[in-house]
């Protein structure tokens, strides 16, 4: 940079050249140059930090630990930043996830930007990043506080997507509740089932996943703020943190609390780890559902083709007219990413060395990534695949008629071994099950037609659709 393009500021290490118009200060500039790789710090974290800094300034004023005029200037600066659109806000927060594992530089990035903007808006107050904006705080307790806040926010966006998919699946469940088809176990033919019953299993899985998330989410309401450097709360004014929790609860609509063990809050991130476990479970169930549907829709001439899927885009650059299960593929790839993120988070959570975990930044980035891709792919799967899904009843009937496992209905009448011999004979001789059964002499045609009731085999009258 030429002398016209930069200004010089100093931190505890020495002077630093900073772009002239940048709102950040020397610690941000050092990090910008020292850690240039990987994804940028999620703006959700930055916005959570800004709300935290505002709550801290208000609380410090209320407990008499910060001059009122300085607190008001900090609040004013934060309000200006919070109203910016993401692309406008991003220019002042250039740091990457792969920095110091405590998130110190991003905490200081926020402190420096807020301080510099407050000084521009309120000249003469000399608001300092560390002494004023970071008053009563440490990166070691603010960053994990921001982590929990953004994790809760991300779950708030994911939950409606899961509910939306459940509702779309319920439509198909109810429509096809009595549409009989071949059941399959071990990738082999099994006894009949209705497509509605099959879908009800998907719905139940998603409802359980949603319940797991909702039951575990409250562990994220426990905030580390007030622990400061090592959990002892050094330099935090009495009563400050309770006020911060109350203010953040009002902003986000959740009952955040600070009456929790701060030594745990700084060195362990059990809440992030355990809740992401529920996200992994959701991803596993979504993989299974998407996998089932794309296989049942496979074909249309050379595979199952029990389902018809919407043609959202041309499926091939060389094969005209091809339709591919792209929404299912997106879901399964998202699941693979979530599985990888879970491994990252699990390992990162184990790295709480002594008084602090130093994998915080990568841990929350992985968590937010999982929430984001699950939210997007679940919504797309609901609207662009499930909504337009129909059954190919002729194919279902054909496969059901050719199935050998409906012989199970004969078992109570002629015995397991006799029924097995009929199925084996039909398979070996390439005949229908009925032909083999009549040839065996074990049943009459009248008995066969009476006992071979596909709908009765599904126990449809003894099962209920998911509500």
How would you characterize the overall build of this protein?
With 467 residues, the protein is mainly alpha-helical. The chain has 19 helices and 8 strands. The chain has helices at 26-34, 43-62, 68-82, 86-90, 104-121, 129-133, 139-175, 195-216, 240-252, 262-267, 270-296, 326-349, 360-386, 393-402, 411-414, 416-429, 433-440, 445-451, 454-457, and strands spanning 6-10, 15-19, 180-185, 188-194, 307-308, 352-353, 356-357, 390-391. The strands form 4 sheets. It has a two-stranded antiparallel sheet. A two-stranded antiparallel ribbon has the order 3-4. It is elongated, with a radius of gyration of 30 Å. The termini are far apart.
What key phrases describe this protein's structure?
elongated; 19 helices; single chain; two-stranded antiparallel ribbon; mainly alpha; 467 residues
Annotation field: number of helices: 19
Mean pLDDT: 97
Indicate the radius of gyration in whole angstroms. 30 Å
Distance from N terminus to C terminus (CA atoms, Å) equals 65 Å
Strand order, sheet with most strands: 1-2
Share of helix among residues?
55-70%
**Portion in strands:** 5-15%
Q: Please tally the β strands and state the result.
A: 8
Molecular shape: elongated
**Helix and strand composition category:** mainly alpha
What is the string of helix and strand elements? EEHHHHHHHEEHHHHEHEEHEHHHHHH
Poorly predicted regions: none
Largest sheet: 2 strands, antiparallel
């Amino acid at each position: 940079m030429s002398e016209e393009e930069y200004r010089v500021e100093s931190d505890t290490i020495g002077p630093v050249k900073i772009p002239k118009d940048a709102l950040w200060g020397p610690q941000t500039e050092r990090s910008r140059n020292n850690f240039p790789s990987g994804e940028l710090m999620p703006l959700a974290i930055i916005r959570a930090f800004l709300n935290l800094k505002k709550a801290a300034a208000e609380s410090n004023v209320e407990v008499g630990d910060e001059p009122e005029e300085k607190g008001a200037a900090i609040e004013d600066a934060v309000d200006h930043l919070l109203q910016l659109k993401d692309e406008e806000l991003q220019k002042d927060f250039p740091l990457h996830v792969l920095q110091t594992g405590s998130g110190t530089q991003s905490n200081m990035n926020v402190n420096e930007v807020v301080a510099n903007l407050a000084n521009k808006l309120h000249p003469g107050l000399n608001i300092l990043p560390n002494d004023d904006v970071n008053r009563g705080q440490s990166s070691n307790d603010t960053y994990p506080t921001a982590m929990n806040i953004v994790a809760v926010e991300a779950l708030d966006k994911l939950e409606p997507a899961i509910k939306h998919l459940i509702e779309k699946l319920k439509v198909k469940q109810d429509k096809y509740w009595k549409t009989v088809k071949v059941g399959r176990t071990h990738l082999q033919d099994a006894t009949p089932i209705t497509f509605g019953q099959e879908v009800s299993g998907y719905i139940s899985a998603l409802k359980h996943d949603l319940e797991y998330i909702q039951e575990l989410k409250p562990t994220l309401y426990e905030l580390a703020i007030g622990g400061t450097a090592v959990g002892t709360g050094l330099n935090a004014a009495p009563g400050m943190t309770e006020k911060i929790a109350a203010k953040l609860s009002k902003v986000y609509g959740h009952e955040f609390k600070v009456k929790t063990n701060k030594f745990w809050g700084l060195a362990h991130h059990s809440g992030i780890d355990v809740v992401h476990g529920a996200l992994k479970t959701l991803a596993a169930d979504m993989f299974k559902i998407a996998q089932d549907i794309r296989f049942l829709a496979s074909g249309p001439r050379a595979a199952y083709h029990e389902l018809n899927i919407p043609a959202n885009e041309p499926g091939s650059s060389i094969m005209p007219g091809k339709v591919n299960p792209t929404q299912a593929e997106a879901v399964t790839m998202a699941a693979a990413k979530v599985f990888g993120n879970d491994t990252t988070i699990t390992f990162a959570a184990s790295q709480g060395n002594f008084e602090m975990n130093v994998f915080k930044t990568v841990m929350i980035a992985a968590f937010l990534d999982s929430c984001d891709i699950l939210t997007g792919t679940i919504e797309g799967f609901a609207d662009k695949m499930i909504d337009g899904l129909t059954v190919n009843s002729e194919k279902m009937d054909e496969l059901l008629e050719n199935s050998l496992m409906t012989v199970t209905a004969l078992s109570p009448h002629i015995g397991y071994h006799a029924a097995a011999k009929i199925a084996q004979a039909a398979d070996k001789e390439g005949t229908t099950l009925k032909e083999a059964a009549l040839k065996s002499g074990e049943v009459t045609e009248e008995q066969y037609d009476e006992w071979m009731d596909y709908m009765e085999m599904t126990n449809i009258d003894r099962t209920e659709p998911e509500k």
